[in-house]
Amino acid sequence: MTEIKLYNTKTRSKEVFSPLDVNDVRMYVCGPTVYDRAHIGNARPVIVFDVLYRLLREKYGTDHVRYARNFTDVDDKINATAAARKAAGAVGTLEELVQERTDETIAWYLEDMGALGNLEPDHAPRATEYIDEMVAMSAMLIEQGHAYEADGHVLFDVTSYENYGSLSGRSVDDMTAGARVEVAPYKRNPMDFVLWKPSDEGQPGWDSPWGRGRPGWHIECSAMAEKLFGKRFDIHGGGLDLAFPHHENEKAQSCVCGSEDDFAQVWMHNEMLQVEGKKMSKSLGNFFSVQELLGKGHAGEVIRFVYLSTHYRKPMDWTDRKRADSERTLRQWRAQVSGVDAANTPDAEFLLALGDDLNTHGAIQVLHKLSRAGDAALLKRSAQVLGLLTDELDGWITQSGAQSGDQERIEQVEDWLRAARNSAMLSGNFESVDRLKSAARNAGLEVRMTKETVELIPDAGFDAEKLYEIKRGDA
RNA sequence: GGCGAGUUGGCGGAGUGGUGACGCAGCGGAUUGCAAAUCCGUGUACACGAGUUCGAUUCUCGUACUCGCCUCCA
Question: Where in chain A are the domains?
């Protein structure tokens, strides 16, 4: 297979990917904070890195790639929900209610991401399972002079790591000058960030050398990545908004903790998502969850296709127009590959496009070409590297609202139409044929007639009620 | 204020130092009782200005506009 080139945020350039160990390619992606249902922005990195995971497995072998994606289950929004439930009379300790909330959120997340055709990672660590490692790492940072304790907090001293800011292209001085937030008085430098903070009675906490408390956000990924992958690994990914401060901080901690300047080889960041040209936000009313999108009847495969139509390093605009276009394309391809066995290997040109920094759009163009050439086996096999045209995501086209009982009725109408057309061909009067056709269309049926055949196919607007209102008439 | 990204035909969206993909829509044709679907054909696009060059949409600089991050949002 051809080489894979990836854009590395660290070097700001596209590089040929060369794993540290071809028998154990390791990718860590920052996962969700599990406080609520995943919104459609959360789905972007999941889909992008799922495609990379599939591509790496294609190249290095399924058993030689490991993918880790964490669940951040320590968070004040989670605490707030748990506290609110307790106040409302829920049974259990605060810790139990926190766990209940994170468990249910994780289950939703996996369900929603699965519906979009994503594979589950090999490792899905939860922050709460790695508190000991985080405490140990924080202690080591203090011991080595990279962190300090102040007012019950443990803070990382950003001036102690000379490359701080290099990943996101910022300097401590510039950021300090432009800081818009009030600086906590106990910080030596305004950019210093929290490794550990104290918890009061109403907050979950763990014992530590600095008293009962909980970890800061950034330390978890450093601790979990090292535990699972060691001090050096291949790819670290996430949304662009994580580049600073999250990844910058994570890198600083890990690098001074023994990874030197060599923690993740490649840092990758996907651009953000917009909705109808605007930033998704609750106040604009264009904020919605993956669940809501699926609930509108949009197939997971269609949603996935929309995401993959835009290169991951460009802002992606979610529009209903794109959704409709994608659906049309997939209906066509699904019909084309139905009953066809996938080829043994994906198309070479397709892999070339995908290997060029995950040019999913370019790869889709190659799929269009394969479709036009009528090579269904190759189309199917290639598309599956994108997680499209898979068996898992199949079945939505027939689920357009038509129940199996409706099918009999549809066939009955087809018979009427056929009979009406046959007699009209003799009489020259097509009035009843046209009436049946428009009634069928009105019920959300696509009318396909050739000289020999009559087919009625339910589409997205299928309406069973109107189907049963169709009368045979005097035809 | 600091840092960064982007600006391609009606829409979406790749890519390239030299006859400007691809998809959708549109238009023309085949087909059809008429349609739909399908097939064939079809497009005077690369924000603006300057520079480098035999030649720039592609490289450099500047301008305008849009967007993101700097607030534990992917």
Answer: 5-273, 297-385, 404-469
**CB A403: neighbour CB atoms within 10 A?**
10
Separation between the CA of A150 and the C1’ of B2 (whole angstroms): 28
Amino acid identity of A458? Answer: P
**Over the stretch A236-279, which tens digit does the pLDDT of each residue have?**
999 988 888 899 999 999 988 877 777 899 999 998 888 877 77
Q: What is the value of ipTM here, to two decimals?
A: 0.88
Rounded, the Å distance between the CA of A360 and C1' of B46 is: 21
Query: Which one, of A266, A249, A262, lies nearest residue A168 by Cα?
Result: A249
Q: Write the CB contacts of A104 (distance below 8 Å, at least 6 apart in sequence).
A: none
Q: Both tokens of residue A177?
A: 């000058």
Helical packing angle, A300-308 and A320-337, nearest 10°: 110
Helix orientation angle between A43-60 and A94-115, rounded to the nearest 10 degrees: 60
Which secondary structure element, helix H or strand E, spans residue A365, and what is its range?
helix A360-373
Cα(A421)–Cα(A433) distance, integer angstroms: 6
DSSP structure class, residue A159 = G
Q: Determine the CATH number of domain A5-273.
A: 3.40.50.620
User: Measured in angstroms, what separates residue A369's CA from nucleotide B38's C1'?
Assistant: 17
DSSP string, A284-307: TT---BHHHHHHTT--HHHHHHHH
Q: Show which positions of strand B are touched by protein (CB under 7 A).
A: 1-6, 11-15, 21-25, 32-40, 67-74
The residues, ordered by sequence, that sit 6+ positions from A266 with a Cβ below 8 Å of its Cβ are A6, A8, A10, A15, A17, A234, A235, A236
A334 sits in the region (left: phi over 0; alpha: psi -120 to 50; else beta) called: alpha
Judge whether A212 and A205 are in contact, CB under 8 Å: yes
Predicted confidence (pLDDT) per residue in A128-173, tens digit: 999 999 999 999 999 999 999 988 899 999 988 888 888 888 877 7
